[in-house]
Amino acid sequence: MEIFHPRSKTDQLRKGAWVVVGRVGGAACPVGLTERLLERGAYRRSPSHPQEDVRLVGPLLRVVQYTRTGGRLQRLVDTLAEPMYSTTYSAFAEALTQM
């Protein structure tokens, strides 16, 4: 699996980097777990029109909107004009602590 990491504090040129993650199999395999997340979250994996950025179809950690029928992703795709940002570290850490 290849993941594009758009920015980090060690990326001095702010160009981002591709990271390769290998499949190891088993219940804790990061590739298998990511595949389940993409499937169950109905993530879009490729742009459907030219206004969508091919690199930014959507970060893995995103805002979930809860309704009476359950949770769903607030937005499914980015556009060049309106990029989608991932959930902040503090919001993610707080939600993880609550779980």
Count of extended strands: 4
Q: What gap, in angstroms, lies between the N and C termini?
A: 27 Å
* Mean pLDDT over the full residue set: 76
What amount of the residues lies in strands? 15-25%
- Main β-sheet, in a few words? 2 strands, antiparallel
How much helix is in the residues?
10-25%
Supply the number of structural domains: 1
InterPro entries: Phage_Integrase-like_Recomb (IPR052925)
In short:
The chain has 2 helices and 4 strands, in the order E-E-H-E-E-H.
Give keywords.
99 residues, alpha+beta, two-stranded antiparallel ribbon, two-stranded antiparallel sheet, 2 helices, 4 strands
Tell me what you see in this structure:
- This protein starts with a strand and ends with a helix.
- It is α+β, with helices and mostly antiparallel strands.
- Helices cover 21% and strands 16% of the residues.
- The chain has one domain.
- β3 (64-67) and β4 (70-73) form a beta hairpin.
- A two-stranded antiparallel sheet has the order 1-2. It has a two-stranded antiparallel sheet with strand order 3-4.
- The chain is built from two helices and four strands.
What does the secondary structure layout of this molecule look like, with pairings?
Blueprint: E1 2-5, E2 17-20, H1 30-40, E3 64-67, E4 70-73, H2 89-98
Antiparallel strand pairs: 1-2, 3-4
InterPro entries: Phage_Integrase-like_Recomb
